[in-house]
Design a protein that fits this description.
Elements lengths: L3 H45 L5 H17 L4 H22 L9 H40 L1 H7 L4 H39 L4 H11 L2 H27 L7 H29 L1
């Protein structure tokens, strides 16, 4: 007769084994995904060498369309959010620190809170929501319709024609949106500051220029390349990963968004630690 303690021990052992097996499966899946992503990025970079003649013009047209959709059409939303965020940050600073002369540090606060961190992250989130999902859904639809295989049949490299221009377009667009976001945040911050104090424009601009460091400016293109490349690569990868069912399209878009969000926040944390610690 098996004792109750022995039964509990057996059940506990089975639970631990299932937990370890599940964890192992997740780790293997994550490593496989990372390997496939690295392969896709490698193929994208390698395809640049084959951009000659008509293929380069075709890829450039696709990239420009991506810039128009990802960057140009996102300007109104980006500008509104940037203006409001800059105003809110300055209002909170002036209100909370009114007795400490916070108006003199408005530029420093805006640079630290918005230009360094929130601006690039919010701009990247906007791109993820508008374009990352669209890339995944578009390529997933093409995959299910057999259009990817048709490109192969015609001798057209799908990675060069579909993935490379989207990565390039996302990087260029995100860089422009980051700069635009920072400018509108500065304007919003001054409007908020002007409604609370009589700070001259010259003093406000000077405080911002003094607070900005060369590494802040260098990080803008660096984050644009890193964040934009990840967003497009994750979206394209998830879109190309669908297999047979139309129900996979929304799942692919959702997984691409999740991967992109996790990726940009992890990358931003690493950059902040390396550059500002």
């Amino acid at each position: 007769m098996v004792s109750s303690n022995s039964g509990v021990g057996i059940l506990w052992g089975r639970s631990v084994r299932r937990l370890v097996e599940d964890l192992g499966a997740r780790v293997r899946g994550a490593l496989a995904t990372a390997g496939e992503m690295a392969s896709l990025l490698f193929l994208s970079l390698r395809s640049i060498a084959a951009l000659v003649g008509p293929s380069s013009r075709v890829v450039a047209r696709v990239a420009l369309r991506q810039v128009y959709f990802t960057g140009n059409q996102a300007l109104p939303l980006t500008g509104l959010i940037a203006f409001l965020l800059g105003a809110v940050v300055v209002i909170q600073a002036v209100t909370r620190l009114s007795g400490l002369g916070a108006e003199g540090f408005a530029g420093d606060i805006l640079v630290i809170a918005v230009l360094r961190e929130l601006g690039p992250l919010v701009a990247a989130v906007i791109v993820i929501g508008r374009s990352g999902t669209a890339m995944a859904a578009e390529l997933a639809t093409m995959r299910l319709r057999g259009e990817i295989e048709d490109l192969d049949t015609l001798g057209i490299d799908p990675v060069q024609y579909l993935v490379l221009p989207r990565i390039a377009g996302a990087i260029v667009s995100l860089f422009g949106l980051m700069v635009f976001f920072d400018l509108l945040a500065v304007v919003g911050g001054y409007v908020a500051l002007g409604s609370q104090t009589m700070t001259p424009v010259r003093s406000y601009v000077d405080s911002i220029l003094q607070a900005i460091q060369p590494r802040d400016l260098a990080l803008i293109p660096a984050k644009a390349v890193l964040f934009g490349g990840m967003i497009a690569a994750f979206g394209c990868y998830r879109g190309l990963s669908v297999e047979a069912s139309p129900t996979e399209i929304p799942r692919a878009a959702t997984r691409g968004v999740v991967m992109s969000l996790v990726g940009i926040f992890v990358a931003d944390s690493i950059l902040a630690t390396l550059v500002y610690s």
